[in-house]
Amino acid sequence: MAGEGAFERDRTYLTSRVTADGRDGWPVEPGRYRLVIARACPWANRAAIVRRLMGLEGVLSLGVAGPLHDERSWSFHLDPGGRDPVLGIERLREAFERREPGYPNGVTVPTIVDVPSGQAVTNDFERITLDLGSQWRAHQREGAPDLYPERWRDEIDEVADSVYRDVNDGVYQCGFARGQDAYDEAYARLWGRLDRLEERLRGRRYLVGDRITEADVRLFPTLVRFDAVYHGHFKCNRQKLTELPALWGYARDLFQTPGFGDTIDFAQIKAHYYVVHHAINPTGIVPRGPDPRGWLSPHGREALGGRPFGEGTPPRPPPVSEAVPPLV
């Protein structure tokens, strides 16, 4: 049982789906939808990775909200004029209001928006990545990997569920705890799971099977933010990621795999957490470190075998308009 003051995530989402058969009224159509993410957000990072791996850049456009937001929702403050150039809106909330006037729930990324109507279709982050890998198959690039192979689905689901509960959400349970007992419980769950993942990855390159799967896509966004944000800002400070040999090697292996590291902007990640979370960091000071260049150091994980994309191939480099700053 969670201690007093435990953080509870709002999981109320728009659950409509964009599908090949249009069962919810939103059929897959090239050019019709816009995937809105924020480089800062780990939940949105998943969708950005899968879109890259599937090669959907030409059929599903990308809107990028800036790292700063307030109670009115994510905004497009990095775009010219402070508006998304395709949707013409200043804040993502406008797309939710067009779908449901007076929308009462959280406005989150990733969100898929219907461009003709300007309406938010879904912000169900778990379903979005699965659907990009399955419902959009007719428009995927040649060589797109299968991230959710039928023969491993039960294991992928089991691993991904524990990663979500104890790690993805676990760092937030630590950071937003409002009582010592709640924090202590979350901290224990987080590090218990990270210890088990460290053990699991000592003898295998990926979490499930011999290739990258949905489980890896879900763990990576938390690991890549760990030392920069969660270790200090969220008080997850038993060890740094760089002090966990298997997890650090695994994370670097993924970072150096096309589709993963080329979605990461450390400056935006740090700006979001350290500036937006006033209750945790009231000064708004953004730390200079850690030095991100270690992410490019050799990892040696190839010796464990496996094929990153299975029978598939790596994606091409991202479009110039979507490139993230190089590590310096």
TrEMBL record:
**In this protein, which residues make up the domain named GST C-terminal?**
149-273
Q: Which intervals of the chain are annotated as region Disordered? A: 287-328
The UniProt entry, under CDD domains, shows: GST_C_Omega_like (cd03190)
Pfam families in UniProt: GST_C_2
Q: Which SUPFAM superfamilies match?
A: GST C-terminal domain-like
Query: What name goes with this protein?
Result: Glutathione S-transferase
Q: Which organism is it from?
A: Streptomyces hydrogenans
